[in-house]
Amino acid sequence: MADEKQTYGEAIEKLEKLVAQIENNELDIDTLGAKLKEAQELIKFCKGKLYGAEKEIKKILEQTDKE
To answer: How far is CA 14 from the centre of its chain?
Structure first.
């Protein structure tokens, strides 16, 4: 599971490493399933961070427009 204390950058770095391992056939079939699940959780974590940032930016822009 993605660690909620990690940063977006750390999660992306882990995800990039996992993708590289998968693309380069560096994982055996016994670990592939677990690594795919880990990648899925990292993607979910990153999406959450992005959606949160987008929401915060919209809020700031709306406040700026009111001033």
So the answer is: 9
> 11 Cβ partners below 8 Å, 6+ apart?
2, 42, 45, 46, 49
Whole-angstrom CA distances from 2 to 19, 21, 34, 39, 47 are 16, 18, 13, 9, 12
Rounded Cα distance between 5 and 11, Å, is: 10
Task: For 11-52, write each residue's pLDDT tens digit.
Answer: 999 999 999 999 999 999 999 999 999 999 999 999 999 999
Closest CA to 15 of 34, 47, 39, 46: 39
C-alpha to C-alpha distance for 9 and 22, rounded to whole angstroms: 20
pLDDT at 67: 73
What pTM was computed for the model?
A: 0.80
